[in-house]
Design brief:
Chains A, B: InterPro entries: Homeodomain-like_sf (IPR009057), HTH-type_TetR-like_transc_reg (IPR050109), HTH_TetR (IPR001647), KstR2_TetR_C (IPR041490), Tet_transcr_reg_TetR-rel_C_sf (IPR036271). The structure is a homodimer. The first copy, chain A, is an all-alpha fold. The first copy, chain A, is built from nine helices and no strands. Chain A has a domain of 139 residues: Tetracycline Repressor, domain 2.
């Protein structure tokens, strides 16, 4: 798990409903227009708030981006670790973990796109906290793959590249989903879980 | 192949070396700062040119983005179709096509990132031309996969999803490459070609 605890996350994000609404509105504005050109004024306007209403919650646009990144990456990590049951066979674990990862991104394309493509705009110490959470998500995939290699379920000799491919597939969902061909998040999640088993070199379930 | 011909592409892009230098500089600026906030003034400055020097080549920032998108997506399509030899067995074809696609993106992360993530900023008729070229690239992957399904080499019942996963993996390279773990484009290209064969359900070469 990440070094950040759930309690620390709550402390960073607060429990204010107004702040949560501002984060949600900011995600939409950042995703639609790009973080660089978006303004807190626009975000406030999208909620019918005065420009000054954002300030008590978020002093800068970057602090808003950081809160969104924290909430998003923590959400991904939680989705993945909750889906994983180490008691189950590795193929079932991989299917569940990949399915949850893909579903999270497909059901939240605005926040997914912001937290995956706007990280360059974070301040260094904020970026370091996000990288820490991302490493925990990567480690969760690594652990499932290694369990399958160890018990002979999976036929791969390069776990890091397999993890890279699996997480890359899930992250890129935020760029293209939905498409003309696939628009149901659960359907995509199932199809990508099958592809994950192929990448892991598992016999088909 | 796309409806656009190579001659029409040349007509759009011109043969001016100055324009090519401006496109290359614009890629770097767009990739580093985001298209939305970047200005043609900055792009000119990065080449030690006066702000007015861009205008004779590109009247608007959008026309510059369109030229880059045209050049980039045409480059991807050409890389893929040149790598494919329909006389070869499907597994060799898939390995070559995926390898070329991945290599193109890994060796050109600035233009790759711009042409994959800034398309929302294109005018509708420009976007339509780019979508047309992208469909041809998708069709090239589909054709190789179908050839392998037809002759029994590949074990997949859903060619579009396999093509989606393969192209998504290659496109997302522009987001993360290079990483601490993989920084050689050719090495990545080889590893992802192996993963492509797994996704296609081929027996290992």
């Amino acid at each position: 798990m990440a070094h950040l605890t759930a309690a620390e996350l709550a402390e960073h994000l607060g429990t204010s409903k107004a702040a949560a609404r501002i984060r949600a509105a900011a995600c939409e504005v950042f995703a639609a227009r790009g973080y660089g050109v978006a303004t807190t004024r626009e975000i406030a306007a999208s909620l019918d708030l005065s420009p000054g209403a954002v300030y008590p919650h978020y002093k800068t646009k970057e602090s808003l981006l950081f809160a969104i990144a924290l909430e998003g990456h923590w959400g991904v990590l939680t989705a993945v670790t909750s889906a994983d049951d180490p008691e189950l066979p590795p193929a079932d674990r991989l299917s569940a973990v990949m399915g949850a990862f893909v579903l999270w991104h497909a059901e939240r394309t605005a926040i997914s796109s912001v937290i995956q493509h706007e990280l360059r705009s974070l301040e260094p110490e904020h970026l370091a906290m996000i990288v820490d959470i991302r490493r925990s998500t990567t480690a969760a995939f690594d652990a499932v793959l290694r369990a399958g290699v160890d018990d002979g379920t999976f036929g791969i000799d390069d776990v890091p590249t397999a993890t890279l491919a699996l997480t890359s597939l899930g992250i890129d969902v935020s760029r293209w989903f939905p498409s003309r061909r696939i628009s149901d998040p659960h359907e995509l999640s199932r199809r990508y879980s099958d592809i994950a088993l192929r990448i892991a070199g598992a016999s088909r379930p």
